[in-house]
Amino acid sequence: MFIGRLAELRALHTALAESRVCVPAGPPGAGKTAFATEYVTRSGAGYRGIWRVSLAGSSADPDETVATLAAGLRAQMALPPSGDALAEFAERVAAESGPSLLIVDDIPGELDDDLIGRLTVPSAGRRLRTVLITNRDVAGLAVPTVDIGPLDIADAAGILRGHRDGTEQEAAELAERLDGHALSVRLAGLALRDGSGYTKLTGRIGNHPVAMLLRDRLDALSEPACRLLRVSALTSPAALPPGLIRLFLGAAAEQAADELARHLFATRIDGTWHVHSLARDVARRYLPPIDWTRLARQFADAVLDHPWSDPIESFLVARHAARLSGRPDLPGAVVDRLHRRVVAHGSMTLPHHRDLAEQNFDDPAVLTEAAQHLRAAGDLEEARDCADRAVPLANDPALRHRARLLLAETLEDLGGDTTRADALWTILTSSNDTGTAIAYLRSRRLRGEHEESRTGLIDLIDRLGPGSAAFGPVQEAQRELARAEIEAGSEASARRRLVRVIADYLSWRRDDHPGLIEAVRMLAAAELALPLTEPKNDRTIWEETARELRRFRGRFATGHGPRHTLTLTLAVVHAEALVAWGRYEEAVQELAAVREDVRDRFALDEPVRFRAELLFGWAVGGDEHFEDAFQGARQALGDTHPQTLRAELGLGVALKPVNRSRAARHILHVLRHAPAMFLPGQNWPRTAPQA
To answer: What is the C-alpha to C-alpha distance for residues 640 and 89, in angstroms, rounded to an integer?
Structure first.
C-alpha cells in the first residue's frame, strides 16, 4: 500500500501537464519506482498509452543509454532488430488522440539537458509526457524536478504501525532513526511483523539501516532464493525475466522469486523481477562465499538455452548475455556464444562485433560482419582493417565479394587511397552484379564525378528495364540518380524522378518500404532548394507533380494518419509544388492546415520544418517565419548555403519596416555572398492572401 508523497504526486502531474517532462530524483531505496507506479495508478486513465523502460545495466555513455531505451521500446512494440525504434515509437504516440506517458527508470550517469532532449523523444511531439528517474543530483537542470527524499515522519510512522501495535511516539522514534528512508521503513515494518519490538529495533539501527535490515532477512531465504539473489549480483542489473529464472532454477523458480519479493529484495514490475541495487550489494557482502565462476557458468548456460521467442524477455536476456560475455573467468567458447547471441538479438551490438572480430581473427564471416557494423557506426578505420583482413581469408566467392565491396566503400569514405579503391572496383564490377554497380556509381558521385555517375545510372536503369524482378534495384538506382541530379544542379529533374519512385512503390502497395520512405525524405532534403525562383514556363509539369503529391499525401493520411511525419513531409512538398504551379492561395491553405503539426513533430534544423517556414514566409509574410527558416537552415547548412541566404534575404526584407539596422545587416550579408539574388528577373513568388 502506497502512503504519502501527495505533494510530490501533484508536482509531478503539474510538471507533466506544463512542461511534458519531469525528473524524480532521490537516493537508492527512496521509492522512486513505487512513486512512478503510484502516479500511473492514479493518473493512468488519462493516458492513451503507458510505456516503461528500465535502463539498469546500461553504461553512462549517452549513446548507449539512448540505444538501450530504443531497444526496450523495440521489444515492447515487437519490432524486428532493423529499423528506427524511436521513430516508430514517435509515430505511435503522435497517432494517439490524447497524451501518452513514457517512464524511463534507472538512468545511469549524469543527466544533462542534451541527454534529456534525446530521452524525451522530441519527434513524438506534444502528446508525449516523459518521467526520467535517476539517483543522481539534478540541480541546475532546465526541466522540472521532484525530490523523492525521506518520507514524512508521520507517514513513515503510519507504515510502521500498520505492521505492529505500538504507541505513536515509538513508531515516530523508529521512523526518525530510519531517516524516513522508504525501503528501510518497509523492511523495519517486516521486522516488526516478525516479532521485533520497537525499542529493541530502534536501538539496533546504526549508520546503515537498510544494509542491516536486509542482512537480517538473508537468514529467512531458501537456498534457491539465495542462488537467485547471488546470480543477480554477478550479472546485469537488468530485470530477470520469468522464463530465464525457470531455466536457471527449474521447479523452484516461482517460489524463489516470490520469496525475494516477500522479503523486499525484489519487486515484480510488468511481469519481470527487478532486484534492488541495495539488495545486490548486501548479497555480495554478506551471503556465504561460493564458487562465483561456477555460478556464472550455470547462469550463462540458462541464457544460452533461452529460446528468445518473447521480445521483452529477449531484450532482458540479451542484457544479461552482454554482461556475462565480459567475464574473463568463463571459457572462451562460452563467451563467444554469448557474444553471438547478443549480435543475433540485434541491439547494442557494436562492442560485441569488436570482441568477436578480435577473438575470431581468422574467421572472414565474423570480420566482414564486424566491418559492416563498424562502418555504419562511423568507425571507418576499424571497419577498413576488419574488411582488409577478411578479403584474403574468404574462400567463399560471395563472402569475398562482400568483403571487397565493404573495403572499397570504406576506402571511399575515408578518402585519400583512391588508387587501391579503384583496383578493388575493377575486380568488383567485373561480376556484373547490380548492387555492386550501384555502389560503384555512388562512389563516382561522392568523388564529384557527377556526369559519369549520372550516365552510368541511366544506362543501368535502361538495361534493367521495368518488371517485378528488377523492381528493387531499379528504384535504388533511381534514388541514387536523383542524388546525382541534385548535386549537379538538375533539381527539377530530381524532383520529378523522386515523385515517380514514390508512385512506383505505391503501385506495388509497398507503402512502408524503406526505399519509399527515403524517397519522400529526399524530396524534403536540405540540399534540394525550394522552387521559389525557378522559371514558371513548366506549369504543366508542376501541375502534374502537384496532383501526384496530393494523391500521395491523401493516401498516407488515410493509411498512416494525418500527423505521421511522412504525411506532413508530403504536405509541405505538395505546397511547394503548388507555389511552383502558381497556386499560391492553395499552398497557403495547405501549409496552414499542417503548420502546427510540422512545428510539433520536426526540430527547427530539420529540412521539412525550415522549408515550410520559408515557404510560409514568402506566401504570407511575417518576420517570425523567416526568422525560424533562417535559424533552422543556418544550423543545418551553415551561414552561406543558398537555402540559408534565401531565408536570410526574406528575413531582411520582412524586418525593414520594424528594425531597419538589423534588416540592413542581413541584406548586406546576402549581397556579399550571393549578389545574383538581387539581379533583375528573379521570380520570387508574390505574397498570397492570409489563410
So the answer is: 36
Which pTM does this prediction carry? 0.91
Per-residue exposure over 542-567, b if at least 16 CB sit within 10 Å of its own CB, e if not = bbebbebbbebbeebbeebebbbbbb
In the chain, the amino acid numbered 177 is R
Asked if residue 272 lies in contact with residue 239, where contact means CB atoms within 8 angstroms, the answer is: yes
Q: pLDDT exceeding 90 applies to what percent of the chain?
A: 70
pLDDT (tens digit, 9 = 90+) per residue, 520-574? 999 988 777 666 655 555 778 888 999 999 999 999 999 999 999 999 999 999 9
Nearest C-alpha neighbor of 649 from the set 635, 633, 637, 636: 633
Sequence-ordered alpha helix ranges (H) in 109-252: 113-119, 153-161, 168-177, 182-193, 198-204, 209-218, 223-234, 242-249
> Strand pairing of 128-134 and 21-25?
parallel
DSSP 123: G
Angle at 109 between CA 106 and CA 110, to 5 degrees: 110
d(CA 171, CA 158): 8
Cβ atoms of 103 and 52 within 8 Å: the answer is yes
The per-residue pLDDT for range 99-109, each reduced to its tens digit, is: 999 999 999 98
Provide Rg for the chain, Cα atoms. 30
Q: Which residue has the cell 497524451?
A: 99
C-alpha cell of 623?
518576420
Task: Give the three cell numbers for residue 572.
Answer: 509541405
Query: What sign for the dihedral angle of Cα 56, 62, 67, 72?
Result: positive
